[in-house]
Amino acid sequence: MIEDDRDLALSIAEYLRYEGIRCDHAFNGHTGFNLAEKNNYDVILLDLMLPRIDGVTVCQRLRTNGNDTSILMLTAKDTLDDKEVGFEAGTDDYLVKPFAMKELAMRVKALAKRKSGQVKKLCVGELVLELHTRMVRREGKEIKLTPICLLLLEMLMRKSPAIVSKRELEETLWSEDAPDSDNLKVQIYQLRQKIDKPFATKLIETVSGHGFRIIGTK
């Protein structure tokens, strides 16, 4: 979510969490653009009037760079001309402020579902995760993983090459019923045994003090 109105942003984030939707937040166009380029999001909520870089420019730059993440533009401007500018820049949907939070969540879910229907597999180097069959292969060899390791791998691959924090991984894997903190270390170890150990190049990295990431051959 790229929104400079802090109160509105907090309200949106709180409601989306209630709907089971996790989101990152940037207060200006520059930071938001960098987040969008570094991460593999399902949907981007983009305010039109932003400091540093406006929403239309952010949208245009993302599309120019080949970023096809679904974009929902949020703005108080409601004329047909304003909407036309947004759609020409590459936005997928347009929601006029003020809006009902329920409608926002419905639109986000619809856009995310549309994207999930388009993405068939995740790839990092020669590591492939088929999202429909949940089959994992590296260098053409099938790899069997436990359900938790599969979810862990999917999170890392969706965010690649960005770092995923320990807290985010634990909250996603176990929600609010997170076990002992060492459990994540165990799952990372088990994943490395399957994904990295049999191969010459290691993909999973520990970033001290920050979390973990999976990255292709440098």
UniProtKB/TrEMBL annotation:
It holds the Pfam family Trans_reg_C. Residues 119-216 bind DNA. Residues 119-216 form the OmpR/PhoB-type domain. It comes from the Bacteria. Residues 1-112 form the Response regulatory domain. GO terms for molecular function: phosphorelay response regulator activity; transcription cis-regulatory region binding. PANTHER family: REGULATOR OF RPOS. This is DNA-binding response regulator. It comes from Photobacterium chitinilyticum.
